Amino acid sequence: MSLAITIDLTSTTPHYEQVRSQIAALITAGELTDGQRLPTVRALANDLGIAPGTIARTYRDLEAAGLVTTRRRIGTLVTAPPAMLDRAAVTEAAQRFVTIARDHNLTDVEIRDLVSAAILNSARSPTQPRGTSALPSAPEHVG
After folding, report:
1. Model's pTM, two decimal places?
2. What number of CA atoms fall less than 13 Å from residue 29's CA on the CB side?
3. For 120, which DSSP code?
4. Which domain holds residue 34?
5. What is the CATH number of the domain that holds 23?
6. Which helix or strand (DSSP H or E) is residue 45 part of?
7. Is residue 26 assigned to a domain?
8. CA-CA distance, 94 to 35, in Å (whole number)?
9. Which of 57, 97, 118, 130 has the highest local Cβ count within 10 Å?
10. 29-38, 110-119, 134-143: least confidently modelled range
11. How many structural domains compose the chain?
12. Residue 118 CB: number of other CB atoms within 10 A?
């Protein structure tokens, strides 16, 4: 298995952090799914041309974050918590929204305005039921 990961040799960001952030992003985006097996430490290190210890540290950091679990003789598996899996669905929906908005020739500013308006319209207090607004309604115009 090969992952779509690149190392920027000119970056001041350590290699293990570059790999960790890219794998975490793949999990968050849903491109790596719950239960999916990651490449072995040696295989990924070989693919990227970096030391196996760097990948081992990356996998330990991902495990500490709850994104993967490592088991002897099985390997390293993605263990995205439900919140991550939900986020992947929301990320996909957001991408579809942006695609549709651009298909309708909306500018980035107009797209942001629509998202901001949607956020305001969905604002609610902690006890407010979903789908209702906590914002005060506009006074009726008398005139």
Report:
1. 0.57
2. 9
3. H
4. 15-82
5. 1.10.10.10
6. helix 41-48
7. yes
8. 25
9. 57
10. 134-143
11. 2
12. 11
C-alpha distances (whole Å) from 99 to each of 109, 111, 120 are: 14, 10, 22
**DSSP class of residue 126?**
T
> Quick one: CA torsion of 128, 133, 134, 140, rounded to 10 degrees?
-140
C-alpha closest to that of 39 among 55, 51, 50:
55
Residue-wise burial string across 87-98, b where 16 or more C-beta atoms lie within 10 A, e elsewhere: bbeeeeeeeeee
Looking at residues 74-95, what average pLDDT do you find? Answer: 78
Whether 62 and 20 map to the same domain: the answer is yes
Same domain, 57 and 23: yes
Verify that 72 and 92 share a domain, yes or no: no
Are 56 and 108 within one domain?
no
Q: What percent of the chain has pLDDT over 70?
A: 80
Instruction: Please tell me the least confidently modeled range out of 27-31, 88-92, 110-114.
Output: 88-92
Name the amino acid, one letter, at 47: D
Do the domain assignments include residue 10? no
Evaluate whether residue 42 is within a structural domain: yes
Average pLDDT, the chain: 83
Q: Per the domain annotation, does 8 fall within a domain? A: no
